[in-house]
Design a protein that fits this description.
The structure is a single chain. With 162 residues, the protein is mainly beta. The protein has one domain (2-14, 25-143): Immunoglobulin-like. The chain has one helix at residues 2-9, and strands spanning 13-14, 40-49, 52-60, 70-77, 82-87, 98-105, 113-119, 128-132, 136-140. Residues 1-27 have low confidence and may be disordered.
């Protein structure tokens, strides 16, 4: 329940020089049917230049420690190809929501991509976003069948640090 109160407060913690995100969000179970919260993507921005983008992705996840935490976010092309995966090496129990950057993501600025989070014990299923670097990103339902089999694709996380 602590994560719900924190999410409603609008508080956000980010890496170093990243800007504060004041979005309010609640964790969701989108399509898994078990009613359990997942790692929600609540914001995506990108900086850089053609074929060399740095993505900043904000996640809201009900992390409890190494047994239950958001262990990556990824960028997926319209054809289901994994374009980039940012491994998260530890849980963020006291840092919700949180933002982490990753790249380079080698895409054109007008290429449509999907961004989603993953939890080590529950997999995919949270809120996702789609859009382009040049046009921005918005929340959208993940298309059925897109990226099937990516969960087992490299890179995979090492054991959780804490």
């Amino acid at each position: 329940m602590w994560w719900f109160l924190l999410a409603c407060s609008g508080a956000t913690t980010t890496d170093s020089a990243e800007t504060e995100d004041t979005a309010t969000a609640t964790m969701t179970d989108t399509g898994t049917g078990d009613g359990l919260p997942r790692a929600d993507v609540i914001d995506v921005t990108a900086t850089g230049e053609e074929q060399d983008w740095l993505f900043d992705v904000s996640l809201l996840s009900d992390d409890e420690g190494c047994d239950h935490y958001a262990d990556w976010w990824e960028v997926v092309g319209e054809d289901g190809t994994l374009l980039f995966r940012r491994i998260l090496r530890h849980s963020h129990v006291d840092e919700q929501p949180f933002t982490r950057d990753g790249g380079p993501v080698t895409i054109a600025g007008d290429q449509l991509v999907w961004v989603r989070g993953h939890q080590n014990d529950r997999g995919y299923g949270g809120s996702t976003m789609t859009g382009t670097v040049l046009g921005g990103f918005e929340t959208a339902d993940w298309p059925a069948g897109l990226g099937t089999g990516l969960e087992d694709q490299e890179p995979q996380p090492e054991p959780c640090l804490y």
